[in-house]
Amino acid sequence: MEGELYVRLGYTMDALYRSITRHLAYSLGVVPTQASKRDIYLALSYSVRDRLLEKMLKTNQRYEDSGAKRLYYLSMEFLIGRSLANNLRAMKIYDQVAEALQLLGTDVETICDQERDAALGNGGLGRLAACFLDSMASLDMPGFGYGLHYDYGLFEQDISNGYQREKPDSWISEAPALQVERADAACIVPMYGRIEETKDKWGRHNPLWLGWNLVTGVPYDIPIAGYGGLTVNRLRLFAARPSTEFDIKIFNEGDYLRAVEQKIESEKISKILYPKDSYEAGRELRLIQEYFLVACSLNDIVRTYEKDYSDFNKFPEKVAIQLNDTHPALAVAELMRILVDQKWVPWERAWDITNRTIAYTNHTLLPEALEKWPESLLARLLPRHLQFIYDINQQFLDRVVTLWPGDVDRMRNMSIMEEGPPRQVRMANLAIVGAHSVNGVSALHTDLIKKSLAPNFFEMWPERFNNKTNGITPRRWLCVANPNLHDLIEDAIGPGFVTDLERLRELEPFAEDPAFCEKFMQVKHGNKERLKDVIFNTTVVEVDPASLFDVQVKRIHEYKRQLMNVLGIIWEYLALTEDGVEPVSPKTFIFAGKAAPGYWAAKQLIKLIHNVGNTIEDDPRARDFLKVAFAPNFRVTLAEQIIPAADISQQISTAGFEASGTGNMKFALNGALTIGTMDGANIEISQKVGRENIYICGLTAYEIEKMKRAGSYKPKAMYDKHPMIKRVVDSLASDRFCPRESGLFAWLKDYLLADNEMFFHLADLESYVKTRELSTQEYVDKTLWAKKAILNVARVGHFSSDRTIRQYAEEIWDLVAIPPTEAE
Ligand code: 26Y
């Protein structure tokens, strides 16, 4: 067979139909007339996968031919959600497939609805990684994801009597339709063992890492289609498997049972995603996972580089590595180890290469989410890496001493090692020292990194710190989630804005056009109808699409202040039932979100939301005005159904705590108005959409910081002074919202009134409630509302992840696009 490397895969309706029926027969062994929806879903997915893989191979060839630099995005989380509809849109075959499925007696929505979410992440950080992959492919950039192939993704959330129950999420059964196993590229990862101090033949110090255990890393590739479908990049996920070499050793000792036990042990490494975000780091298995990701990725990266180059001088010009938070920060030590121990690069030279290659993104300032690992654990698990960390720290502290002689406090603060007991390795310090770039994810957050998290490092290396405000991919969060709004916009301003989102500005004049406003509100209403059904099917709460949909969906966390939202609801409820103040519009409060399984306060909040909802529903004076729905099992797919239906988006974190937020951007793009604090990216969103098109409330980060330093926050005084605050708080302490579980929420009163209440709920409550009132009044004025909502859509183009990725590429990675040739 000469010439043509690939069979001809068609993109017409006909070709796609044939492809689906062929896969029904030859991949699944079913007759088309007897195929279930699930069979058709799989056959279609395989047909799509064929086409993606071909484009992926061609893309890779193009990158190889160009010799271009590559970017590797190392992340413990990739929160992808569903892939099929997204891929059909990217490849521009959605309509053809829709027709082909008609012939098979079904429809494209039903079939796409068969897919389970790939929930390989917790929240913002994981979803950001998925948006970035989409943008890099859509911009024709050689950017690849590296992550773990978890058997179990984020748990499924059931609600029982208002309480969260966790169920395992077995994603693995879904995976074959998306991925290809690459056993040929498997690698071997050493861990544990000991160091033997030896000398090499020239008598130089030559420590050897011996007696390790081995685990195999088997890669699975998931194709990531750029918009247009010509560039297809790769997300490579590693699964841990027992190493065969390891088995043989044990078998020789005749210890069969131990061998089998060890087999199970190794597979544990990629078994499950840790379900915590921004909350309490640290278990041995988690560190092993982080190391396993780093070791597999760097092995792959170095191997790819060495295909083209015989020494490492060009490494930083051909390779960029971005660390998604400190989770893969061991990459600093691992790259040093590879260069020094395996490639014989001198230490100083290796350090220069490492530093110029690696960059680090910080996503949180919360002290409990900053990773620290006990020195003793590292000494056991990774003795050689620990030596590199000591050496890195030593030469770093030597520089600190020359710059600030005698400043012991500064040394102690900047050291990678934290004094004990127990002595710990500070992963953020390791990442900052090891990387040439440290970035925050919004302007405020970056400012706080410089001023509060790492001021000494900023003083030492000001040029190292930079901001990259987050973004979201308009492909998923507009085209897939809200196709009707996409089509309406396209009718108005023409095609092309999906890859050039600033062009949404051209919508501005339409905010004054009554016919457009009318259609815009119709699209919103249709989305609210769709959400009504989803909510009814999962909660049996019946919501009214004519009411104001006021939405807060995100992980449940004290700093995100779902509690303040509930206090606001109780406030309105008491005003209505006890003071006779009717809201000017009926309102539906929609919540969704998961709590980390061990996070008691967050789980209580889920219960509180349910109970307040039930109390209101049981009260004939209130139920026609106020409604509360908690949609269970929040995930990417549910977000795609909720966000397009929102009138109001609540982004009310305590200022200074939410690094950026990305939900805020998704809502604004879908025409919801934000009620928000001056936190994270809310600040930049308000600058873009205009102060009159967003509802801002609460204290600023600097006001809160000042009050904390002065110790001047006295919630008890506010409670005593303000009768309504008192009524709201006292209602929580009473059994009003827990008639059948007496005393359940009494703790909340003490919590809210404590001087050390970290999140300033009562400080912001009055300003928040007033702002909510204003928004409800404006909602009733449909012309005003439509105008503001349209202006939000028109002005959020800046928050496309395409813009974010361009900035990373230019300012950190020095990465250029390698667009497809005519022939492709
Ligand atoms: C170490 C472990 C406990 C841990 C695991 C996950 C710590 C943090 C996380 C995840 C953090 C996270 O999702 N942060 C969010 O990142 C988003 C993307 O930058 C931001 O928009 C959001 O404000 C931030 O909370």
TrEMBL record:
Keywords: Allosteric enzyme, Carbohydrate metabolism, Cytoplasm, Glycosyltransferase, Pyridoxal phosphate, Transferase
GO cellular component: cytoplasm
Subcellular location: Cytoplasm
Top-rank EC class of the record's enzyme: transferase
Keyword Oxidoreductase assigned: no
GO biological process terms on file: glycogen catabolic process
InterPro entries hit by this protein: Glycg_phsphrylas, Glyco_trans_35, Pyridoxal_P_attach_site
Xref: Gene3D superfamilies: Glycogen Phosphorylase B (3.40.50.2000)
Main localization of the protein described in the UniProt heading: cytoplasm
Molecular function terms from GO: glycogen phosphorylase activity; pyridoxal phosphate binding
Modified residues (N6-(pyridoxal phosphate)lysine): K666
Keyword Transferase: yes
Cofactor: pyridoxal 5'-phosphate
Enzyme Commission number(s) of this protein: 2.4.1.1
Bilayer-spanning residue ranges: none
Catalytic activity: [(1->4)-alpha-D-glucosyl](n) + phosphate = [(1->4)-alpha-D-glucosyl](n-1) + alpha-D-glucose 1-phosphate
Function noted in UniProt: Phosphorylase is an important allosteric enzyme in carbohydrate metabolism. Enzymes from different sources differ in their regulatory mechanisms and in their natural substrates. However, all known phosphorylases share catalytic and structural properties.
Stated family: Belongs to the glycogen phosphorylase family.
Protein name: Alpha-1,4 glucan phosphorylase
Organism annotation: Desulfatibacillum aliphaticivorans
